[in-house]
Design a protein that fits this description.
The protein is of the alpha/beta class and 188 residues long. The protein has one domain: Rossmann fold (3-Layer(aba) Sandwich), CATH 3.40.50.10490. It has a five-stranded parallel β-sheet with strand order 2-1-3-4-5, sandwiched between helices. The longest helix is centred in the last third of the chain and has 24 residues. The radius of gyration is 16 Å and the shape is globular. The protein starts with a helix and ends with a helix.
């Protein structure tokens, strides 16, 4: 496959994500996040591998800045504290790490954004369960169908693919849009 073919495929998939359902889910996600961050309640973001990097990217954009000068927003990427992650995972298990951090940092009215390309990451699912138990909104960012994470989500943003690299390309577009709109509403 040539570079042009690859980019054409990627662009076509991104266009497929532009559905009325995705737009409605995105609007709902933005509203919930703006409400939480506007009240200084946390947005916790988690994922594994590339999705962990995406979680850190989102936190970096919201704590720092995306496009506008504004106050820092209460956004934490879970799993990034090596001492906590290694101690907890060694003494207990990795599957409960994010849930433990939700227990520590989550607040009723806050939001958990769980990123899982398959929707089947056990630690993201357990974080969603912990967040719901705390009265938080759960937003899932997944591939097609939402996997086992879907029933734990209040809002599901799904990329129209089952192929991880393509899902991640759509995720980047979706979360950049989300950061832009959240920032625009809170920078005012």
């Amino acid at each position: 496959m040539s570079l042009n073919q690859y980019l054409d495929e990627s662009a076509a998939l991104i266009r497929q994500a532009a559905t009325p359902e995705t737009a409605a889910a995105m609007d709902a996600a933005i509203d919930r996040i703006v409400t939480a961050l506007g009240a200084d309640l946390p947005l916790l973001v988690c994922g594994n591998g590339g999705s962990a990097a995406d979680a850190m990217h989102i936190a970096g954009e919201l704590v720092g800045r995306f496009l506008k000068e504004r106050r820092a927003l209460n956004c934490i990427a879970l799993g990034t504290d090596a001492a906590v992650a290694t101690a907890w995972s060694n003494d207990y298990d990795y599957a409960s790490l994010f849930a433990r951090q939700v227990e520590a940092y989550g607040r009723a009215g806050g939001v958990l954004l769980g990123i899982s390309t398959s929707g089947n990451s056990a630690n993201v699912i357990r974080a969603a369960e912990a967040a719901r138990a705390k009265g938080m909104t759960v937003i899932g960012l997944t591939g097609r169908g939402g996997g086992r994470l879907k029933p734990h989500c209040d809002i599901l943003l799904e990329a129209p693919s089952n192929f991880t690299p393509q899902i991640q390309q759509v995720h980047a577009c979706l979360y950049h849009y989300l950061c832009d709109k959240v920032e625009a509403r809170l920078a005012g």
